[in-house]
User: Fold this.
Amino acid sequence: MAADVKPFIGSKASPHQESEAEELRKEHLMLDPMPRDEMNQMVMEAMTTTTRKWWAWVIGLGLAVAVLLFGAWGYMIATGMGVAGIRRPVYWGIFIVTFVFWIGISHAGTFVSAILRVFKAEFRRPFTRAAELMTTFGLAAGALYPLIHLGRVWVFYWMVPYPNARWLWPNFRSALVWDFLAITTYLLSSTIYLFLPLIPDMAMARDRSTGWRHFIYKLLALGWRGTEAEWFRLRKAISIFAFAIIPVMFSVHTIVSWDFAVSMVSGWQSSIFGPYFIIGAILSGISAVVTILYILRSTMKNMDYFIRKEHFDALGKLILIFSMSWAYFFFNEYILAWYGGDEALKQVLTLHATGPSAWVWYTMLICNVAIPWLFLWNKKVRRTPWLMFIITLLVNVGMYAERYTIIPLTLGHQRSPFDWGIYNPTIIEVSIALGTLCLFIFLYLIASRIIPLVPVWEVQEGQMSHTLRKIGKTEIPSVTELE
Amino acid sequence: METNVRMILFKEDQVDQASEAIETLHHHGISDKDISVISGVPFSEKILGRPMSWTRVPQIAVAGALFGFIIAMLLNFLVPNLYKLSVGGMPLTPIPTSIVVTFELTMLGLLISTFLGVFIEMLSPSFGPKGYHPKISDGYIGILFNCPIHADEDTCFELQDLGAEIVDVAEVKQP
Amino acid sequence: MTELLAKEAQDEKWGMVIDLDICSGCQACVTACSMENNIPFVGEDEMAYGRGMQWMRIRRYWEGEYPDVMPDHQPMLCQQCGSAPCEPVCPVFATLHSEVEKINLQVYNRCIGTRYCAINCPYQARTFNWFDYEIPAPMNSYLNPDVTVRRRGVMEKCTFCVQRIVKGRQQASAEGREMEDGDVTPACAQACPTDAITFGNLSDPESRVSKMVRSDRAYKELENLGTEPRVTYLKGGKSYGG
Assistant:
């Protein structure tokens, strides 16, 4: 607690101890408490400051979304799927690759704010919301693809289970219907999970804003006052969510992987696909969190107080662990397929490593395995934000390459050599994929100026429970459990 | 007996004083149901020496999960029988595939109803004295109590001695 | 009438036998199929890119080392699998098993174009309408009124000329008799100059197809996948038939 730290450091401490404590406070956000009103002020300032550059980005990205995503998509709807590069053996291309990519990114928020919350990892506090936003917007971008890739998108609602005049319900034996259910569940629940811890912060923003902002925040704060009953209820709901959303998150990417694994395509039918995809998704999700944290820290006001090197350090360790787990699953899947002696499968694996698109496969291995392993063991690297930015960006390039290898490159080389084919993405496909990236950044930019990106009450709660405690000759950070 | 709604504020690091203030109020014959504590950070009731608050969110959540489960069962085992279509040598209502649908819809019911529970409870009227002050979101701990008019002055002085900031009655209003 | 249909329904299990030893790879079946089923032409470039709409394709492999090479032809069409991998993956029941003919149906106006069925077909027998194809005049006058024309964004595939099966059944019932072997001939079998394609009812042990299926030259494509194809290929060793 703030009060406990001060008298302790005050009079009696030796200069040596004082500098040590100073170091610790500089290092850890939780040990560097700041009065709540100042913290509120900082967050409000970060949220309400819109520079000319920010407007330029918003307008530019808005235009890009309109042209690259909706323009290209509209053209494709009006003309036909043929404007994409997909062809006979490769019926799924960039669209499904990007779909899996975004669903993977969306695992970031849940991982950070549910798993780390359940295990009480204190470093999560300042950036849970930033990560949850990624989940929601990643899903928003990803959930477009099941629509985009439909040949007749105008009848997409035939997949929705409701009593209808056609007397026909969807086929609950199809993995695509599971996909639909899982993504709906995840999208709704992650949006709610973003909203619940936001209520007290909305009340905070309501108390310090006027005009349209006040109106919105007042509406969203649901009349929050902060009574004991309200806090109790909120904590209950958050803990129900934290525990329940973890299996939902696992199920979502498992079901996405089942789209492939339940099929007869050689190279897809694998019982390890579920966990393999989940690990890959978490790897790419956490990497994307680091990428975004770097951008937030360097572009938004006051963020360097909340996001510190310790956070890059902690996330860097997680990335290293997940990169190793990913390599483990990859090797597991690879060696058994290779050893098994199924001729079609062997052909596929050979093609990945030596075919005309082998560079994709090597990009995947270099970015997902070589780069994290070579750099992230080093504390100095993990604590250098711009280096982490580059590394995490590369990890996501690698994860995109992984999905590209798994989907079009595997499909192009199936059992009958007569049907082998090479897939060339067209400009329309690339444009739509870029368009959803622009959509994601666009939504994030807007949201970063509308909702408080730092959960202030959670940070303050954390700072109150952290103290420096003297043990022997030195001071050690210690945590009290307030709950 | 006529009462005034009074509000006092403590800084976030005056938790000890706040809990003492609540005890003082008890001494003055103001019962727990005439007191409500509002804060910018959650404090457990034990810290402040208050009775446990209650919520029905978990029960609502379980009810929602059950609802989702029933819907899933209908979709899995009733709906395919309405219009029988056979595919790929699979039975009409296979158990393995139904597990997936059941899981997703049960979780959907659970999570949505948790939110609805919070939403409904937030909008329902609450017990205890009403009032709010913007300083709460600056981390202050506010204690609202129904103070009998005759005891007004004395109580306030006593609380002031504990370091409380007395909020003017006119400023105590809903957000 | 309905009883008759129900009785026949139990008896019908359509199948095809293709004798690869006498197939010359002339593509007459491909052409006949396209004419019968209103299959559009996609043009050279699209065809070369692998977007041909043919429901029946001649897979041509080369055997031997250059210059001693021999072409090897295999007409490939929907195998009407008994346990079809394409069916359960469709979210909207656009492809499903017919209880009467025991074939694999494709319902065009129910299809939303996920293309999952095509991915899951190990025979790559399905074709997708990448665009709205216009059939140039005067060919549009040849459109078969018994077969739906398809628009962009839907999947399609060989139906074993289901319209001819229905016609054959109606013909027989109008004449007050049971269906006989040879009542139904799909377009490909009809056009085959070497009579390499035989079509008939597999549930009748005396039909021509049933007899040919029992031949020791018979094999089924990718039989190990357990899809139970209804198309049987006949192929002997190189010494066979000179």
